[in-house]
Every structure is written in C-alpha cells, then in structure tokens.
Design brief:
Blueprint lengths: L2 H22 L1 H16 L4 E5 L4 H5 L11 E3 L14 H6 L5 H7 L8 E5 L6 H12 L3 E6 L1 H6 L16 E4 L9 E3 L2 E5 L3 H22 L15 H11 L9
Parallel strand pairs: 1-2, 1-3, 3-4, 4-5
Antiparallel strand pairs: 6-7
Amino acid sequence: MSENKLAGQFFDAAIGLLQRVRDEEAGHITAAGSLLADTVADGGRIFAFGAGHSSLPAQDVVYRAGGLALINLLAVPGVVGLDVMPATLGSALERVNGLAGAVLDTSPVQAGDVLIVISLSGRNPLPVEMAMNARALGVRVIGVTSLAYAEHTRSRHSSGTFLKDHCDLVIDSKIDIGDAELTADGIAAPFAPASTVVTSALMQAVVAAAAGELAARGIDPPMLRSGNVDGGHEWNGRLLREYGDRIFFRH
C-alpha cells in the first residue's frame, strides 16, 4: 500500500469525523456559542484548558487572527503544551490529584466565567478535577471530549467519574479509543490521530457560533485581526485596551 493511498485515507477519515461532528453535535455547538455570548455580554471572562496534545485546540483559539479576543489560556506549568523535558512529565502530571485545585486557586478564574476543558479521554484526574473545582467556584464548564472513552474505559479519578460528568455542557468529538484512524500491513500499531484536527475545528465552530449570536443581539464581537494586514496591530491594540480587564494573555 503506497504512502499516497494512506494519506488519502487519513483525509477521508478526518473529513468523515468532521461531518459527524457537524451534523450530530450541531445543537451542542450552538448552545456552547450561546453560553460564550452570554458571558461576553454579561462582562464575564472565558478560559480554555487542555493537557498535552489536548492543549493544542485550546491554544488555537487564544490570541489569534480571526479569534475572539476574550478567550484566555488557563495554563498549568508542565502540562499545557509539550515544552517540558522529558515530554512524559506532562502525562504524569495529568494524573496528579489536587493539581487542578491549586491551579484554580491561583488563577484569575472566578464565578460567572466560562471554562472550556478539553480532554480526549476525560479520564485523568486533572481535567476531571478542573471541571469539578471550577463548577464549585460558580464557573460554567464546557467539556470537549470523546464519550467513547467513558463508555469503554475506566476513570483514573478516585470518584470513578469522567470529565463529562462535571460539565454544564458536553461536546463529543466522536474520536474512537486510541486516537488512531488507520491500520496497514507492515505497521504494527494503529496510526494517524485525528483528534487535534477535529477538536480544533470544534473550537473554531463554537467561537463562530458565539460571534454570530453576539451579532444577532446587536453586539459587535471583539474579534482580533491578523497583525500581518495593514491596520491589524492598531485594531488589536484597541481591543486589548478596551477589554483589558478581561484579557490575561498580555500581562
């Protein structure tokens, strides 16, 4: 089997998943967009969190061209991204009990805000406790996860629960257990993960839904422009000043 054929199969698999999410999660995406719009209109703040590769879709909606300026990354040192050595440390920290509480206690997150928690499996202590503790603070939580894991794996949290059990709203990424879309002769392990493609698209869809909802209410959503187009820096500078009390990625 040629590499080109496998590459095409991956695109087909990713497109199929995107179509499923578009059709089957449309209601949840719209509801998430409305929740973000409510938060913007009410003067609240928006945060996104993910651990390891699940941090990539969270980072994708923070301070970027075409994005909502009010989305902040809730960073956990050693967990968000792959900038620690060894890389396996991030996975180990995701299983540490109590870390989420310490992070939230020292973060700007407060009652009335929205926190988007992204976790493919939703089974590790960090995302589970992040959602639990945030809701205890009066924060509304949107979970982006694969419900297949909750159906076919065991939670690693002492409560036996998953991320999905501690959210105000859940969006199912439809990713199968193992996050590998392809198999082939001569390749012992399944390969070609699609969770980043699908979850990043989900996040952008939620932001688009929020922008549309705000516009429908007569509120011009604070969307960032590219700094590589004329006037982009000036536009963004105005937004950062106007909404400075709700933006934390510039301090």
